[in-house]
Structure formats: structure tokens, C-alpha cells
Amino acid sequence: MYNKETITKLNELDRKHYLHPTSSLKQHQESGPKRIFTEGKGIYLTDVNGNQYIDALASLWNVNIGHGRKELGEAASQQMGKLAYSSSFNNLSHETVIQLSEKLASMTPGDLNVFFYTSGGSESNDTAFKLVRHYWKMKGQPEKKKIIGLERAYHGITMGATSATGIPQFHNMTTSISPDFLHAAAHKTNCELGDKSDPDYFRSIRGIIEKESPETIAAIIVEPIQGAGGVIISPDGYLEAVRKLCDQYGILMIADEVICGFGRTGKMFGVDNWNVVPDIMCMAKGITSGYIPLGAVAMTERLRDNLAAVSNDVLFHGFTYSGHPTACAVALKNIEILERENLADNSRQMGPELLKGLKFLEDKHTIVTKSRVKGLLGAFELFEDREQGIPFNPEKMAAPKLVEECLSRGLIVRAVTFGGTNIIALSPPLIITKEEIEKITLILSEAIQAVK
Ligand code: PLP
Questions:
Q1: DSSP string spanning 6-54?
Q2: What is the mean pLDDT of the chain?
């Protein structure tokens, strides 16, 4: 616990000098930072006042192995002492990136055995978009460059990733969303299988492909479970239908596994729940459990071989920190822990406990509905009248208020309010126990009582 003077100083300096990501600037300038954290251990964070919080979002859906794992710091320190940095440009390499690539290849489905490295999810997605366009260009089809994403999808904040994102609020800041990115209605499995009688057919991926012509479409990008859009789980059969559609029309399938990867959904990767193998898989977050920035793009050997066969050119795409040795060393240690402690299994086993907790909330509070969980990714919704399906008036700020009530009771969860929804998302560290889930449920219940 810090003294009062230090806390006041930190608050002042934050307000004066720090522009927070995805935050209200007005609120920041009026009230300063909401909390200043100093420590993390297991599923808990501690702030400057010595208050403890259950981090039921694994911070940003990323701290999969939990906070305070000294082993990761030791792995980073050893790597820095041995080889702090070396570039991978121009076919130079180092031992740790080779080891990580071999390890990832043993984990990813199908022949997704070739890896390009980035510093996070947005860079991974932008890399995927450039790679697929390059692929088609090299194959003599440069007009095949459009990308279809889904409504409510979140793919990040770089230009390509923002364009692919299907949440309009993220487009507001950017005046030049690329017209080569199209957005389809999510999860219209029947349409993707060819049901033209559905009035939404023209908004489905298949409808859009037919309208635009498959000759113009490079790739389709999907999150196996939409995270930031409100934890929307692909219905069974959907990803399989998208895979089929891609095969039918000669379009590449990109899975955005930035949240779903590394055990979050009860399997190592989200697509493993449906046995679908995409052509490209974008990863970040859980690859290092947030201990150091790293992202990766997995592609099939077939895709790499095709690229190599048709292009003698240098691949003009690389970040200074592509394959950063320390990030790779931390990723290797993180994966070792995930496997040693069977955390994907724990995620699968704790999922039903989390769902039980959310159903308890539904039983107890008439404003709670639509609970869903896959692994340790879950959500519920708040409705003014759930029987009649009447949502809360957005001015009531039901979900954001609940998040504040939770925070004041030592629980961190997330509100999703896009498109008039009041969704509460949960994504706790994969080490969580049944007792800790019960604790989360009780705090949520108290907080819901306070906003009713
Ligand atoms: N893709 C998905 C599914 C995400 O949830 C996120 C971030 O939350 C991103 C991409 C962007 O990743 P980053 O913030 O590391 O750039």
C-alpha cells in the first residue's frame, strides 16, 4: 500500500501525461485513472491503496496462466543475458525463434506449420491480410483482394484490422476505412450452406461472395468466438460451413485466434472445438499470457510452398521485432506452463462451473439472461424485461454501471454496449478454481442487486 502523497502524485501525473488506450479522454481529464495497479498474483491484482481485485477478464483476455509467474521473468532474463536481440530479416535466425516455431507447429491443427511473428493481434491480422493479397497477386489474380469479416467482429486497431472490424464505433476515428473490407451478418449457417430463402441471405458471406464475385475475394476472417463483440459463440456447423464455402469458391480462410488461442475455449485453439483447419491462424495475447508483447501468424505449409514457388521476390513485410528472442523465450515458458498444468483441460472443466454461476444469477435476478460459456470465455446480458425481450434504455448505462459496482467490490469484468447491448463478459485466468468462480458469482450477484 502506497502513502497518500505518492498516490496523489501518481494520479496527477497519469492525468497530465498518459493518453490511455480505448478510454474516455473526457472522463480521464475529469477524474484521472480509475485504479492504479501495483501487483498481480494468480487471479488477483492489487492497487496502490492495497485493495485486491479478482481479475475475471484475465486483464485483456490474455493473462491465461495468471499473474506473478516468476518463471517467465527468469526465462526473459536468461534470454536477455544470452542474446537480447538479433534480427530475422534477410533470412538471419536465432535458436529461440526456431524452437518456438517447432513447438507451435506441434500444437496447431492440420498443416499450419509455418509462422511469421509480430508484436500483437492487430499486426498479426494486418500481416494475414497482406499475405493473402500477395498470395493471389503472385498467383496471377491481383484483383482477388477483398476481405470479408463479420458484423460485431473485433480484429484490432491498425488500419487493416480496423477495416476488418465489424463494430462501427471503431471506424469513427478513422476516416478511411478500406472499401476492400466487407462485413457479413454473423453465424447465418443456413445461408452459408446455400439457403437462399432466408431474407438475410444477401448479408451472409455466401450472399456477398456471389454479389461481389469470388474472383474479387481474397479471404474470409472469423473469430471462432467473437470476444470484444460480446462473447458470441459460433453455433455448431458454422465454421465448418465457412470452411466449405472457402473451398468451394477458392477463398482463403483466416481464423482470428487472438482471444480463443492457448486454452481459452477449453481446447488449445478455438477452431479445435469444431475440427476446422483454416489456411491462416492469427495469434497473440495467450501466446505469452501478456507477460511480453508477441503475436504470430500461422500458415499452412501448402500456402508457404505456393508462395515460394511463384515468387522469387523478397517478401517486403517484416517488423523490427518479428521473432524477438526474449518474447520467444517467454512464449516457450508460457506454453510449457500451459501444458504442464493442463490449463486447456482446466478451462474445459471449469466452463460448466462458470455457466452454473451465471445460471444462478439468472435464477436470482430477473434482469439477467442469455448466459453462455465455452471453456473460460463467458457472458451474460442485462435486459429491462427479459421475458418481453425489452433492452435497457442505453442512457441507463446498465452494463457499465454494473462494471463499476463490481470494481468497487473487488471484481474486474467487462461491459459490451455496442449496438444497444448490455453484455457482461468474463474471461478469467485459466488457473481459476471452482471456489474462485463461486466468489465471482457472489460478487456479481451483489453488484447486480445494486444496479437493479
Ligand atoms: N483480434 C482479436 C480477436 C482481439 O480480441 C484483439 C484484441 O483484443 C485483436 C485482434 C487485436 O490485438 P492487439 O490488441 O494485440 O493488437
A1: HHHHHHHHHHHH---TTS-HHHHHHH--S--EEEEEBTEEEETTS-EEE
A2: 96
